[in-house]
Amino acid sequence: MPRILAMLAVCSGILFTTVPIAAHHSFEAEYDRSQKVTLKGTVTKIEWQNPHVYYYVDVPDANGTVVNWAIEVGAPNGLYRAGWRKDSLKIGDKVTVEAFRAKAGGPHANGNSVILANGKRVFNGTADPTAN
Amino acid sequence: MSIKTSLLASVCAVALVSAIGASPVAGQAKPARPAAAPPDLTGLWDGAPGGNTRDLAKYMKSQGLTIPFTPSGAERYKNVDMAKNPNAYCLPPGPSRALTGPSPFMIVQHKDVVSFNFENHGVYRIIYLDGRGHPADIADYLQFMGHSTGKWEGDTLVVDTVGINDRTWLDSYGLEHSDKLHLTERFQKTGPDTIKYTVTYDDPVFFTKPWTASLNFARQKDRLMEYVCTDNEKDRANLVPTPREP
Predict the structure, then answer these.
(1) Chain B: closest CA distance from residue A30 (Å)
(2) What is the CA radius of gyration of chain A?
(3) Is the Cβ of A26 closer than 8 Å to some Cβ of chain B?
(4) What confidence category does residue A124 fall into, taking pLDDT thresholds of 50, 70 and 90?
(5) Cα separation of A81 and B42, whole Å?
(6) What pLDDT, on the 0 to 100 scale, is given for residue B216?
(7) Domains in chain A, please, with CATH?
(8) I want to staple B225 with a disulfide (CB 3.0 to 4.6 A). Which of A77, B93, B111, B245 is the partner?
(9) Which of A24, A31, A84 to mutate to test the interface with B (most CBs of B within 10 A)?
(10) Of B235, B236, B242, B245, which to mutate for an interface test with A (greatest number of A Cβ within 10 Å)?
(11) Residue B86 — φ and ψ, nearest 5°?
(12) For chain B (length 246 residues), average pLDDT per consecutive 10?
């Protein structure tokens, strides 16, 4: 029985955390699905606000020059229902971001997932409820 | 006669009088049974899992059908610019997209009116059930969410909507319409926590004949939250003209 309950908890977690978060704009009009980037850096700011949550990450390039990337994720209501909270990601967190670049160019992308230094996924992450 | 016997006799007498009063008198018609009260749709709802009406062309394909476009409607659909999604400009979603898209809504039901309160953009729909018609001049005063009247047919609320301006999309994938759009929607309470929603789109400018989509709503346990599109909006400046992905 405990095993069944644990399985149910995991399965519901999977469903819970993979709820699609709708954008108020058409994704394809702002971002390019063919340009996926992986960014490693430090969180500098989190904007938990309508119509979309943004967070910012300082990412050093190959020459050591630091570029501050803006990462868009879902709307706060959808993220909240999916289990994310204002403090799921904190300033100073070392993160690896998987994202799709903006068509307009620049250091701007739509976040697909964020992995903390300890391996936990937050924001668009998968079935790890402890990441919240 | 003891007190107990007297009491029993009184109760029997009352019961007998009531029974006689309730019996039909020969030659008189039975009183009509009152109509069953309509179900109560009040509550927080959202699309049930498995719905696929965000992209209505794909939905129709899943049903083995296609949207019956007029030639000009097909041309408009083929050439739509996804950057012009009205949602991106924080405009109201329109009466049916507010229901076929993914976002919760609160129904509050009264005998003369039903109110739909949408989390998405904080917009609402009012369905008048008091027998009124549409305003005679509604075509001159179009609205994003149209004008709706309704009536109960058994367990189903049937809603008639006109007066919708042509600035909304019917789905999230560029399905436009004209201001001749006429919607007929049916909300059937299929269980304590489920509603079957059916919408028929009739628009002689875009479609050769009316066509229908359907999905289920499931009762939600949490609360209606705020979604304010115009607050801190920063995406619009980054939109790039983009055709619909195949």
Answers:
(1) 5
(2) 15
(3) yes
(4) low
(5) 21
(6) 98
(7) 2-131 (2.40.50.140)
(8) A77
(9) A24
(10) B235
(11) -55, -30
(12) 44 40 48 79 96 95 98 98 94 97 95 97 97 98 98 97 98 97 98 98 98 98 94 89 88
pTM (predicted TM-score): 0.82
Q: Give yes or no for a contact between B91 and A25, defined as CB atoms under 8 angstroms apart.
A: no
SS3 labels along chain A: CHHHHHHHHHHHHHHHHCCCCCCCCCHHHHEEEEEEEEEEEEEEEEECCCCCCEEEEEEECCCCCEEEEEEECCCHHHHHHCCCCCCCCCCCCEEEEEEEEECCCCCEEEEEEEEECCCCEECCCCCCHHHC
Q: What is the ipTM of this complex?
A: 0.78
Q: Which two tokens stand for residue B108?
A: 């509050």
Cα distance between residue B104 and residue B47, in whole Å: 8
Can you identify the CATH homologous superfamily of domain B43-235?
Calycin beta-barrel core domain (2.40.128.20)
Q: A25 vs chain B: nearest CA distance in angstroms?
A: 4
Judging contacts by C-beta atoms under 8 Å, the chain B residues touching residue A47 are: 232
Give yes or no for B122 touching A (CB within 8 A): no
- Per-residue burial over A23-38, b if 16 or more Cβ lie within 10 Å, else e, is bbbbbbbbbbeeeeee
Domain boundaries, given as residue ranges, for chain B: 43-235
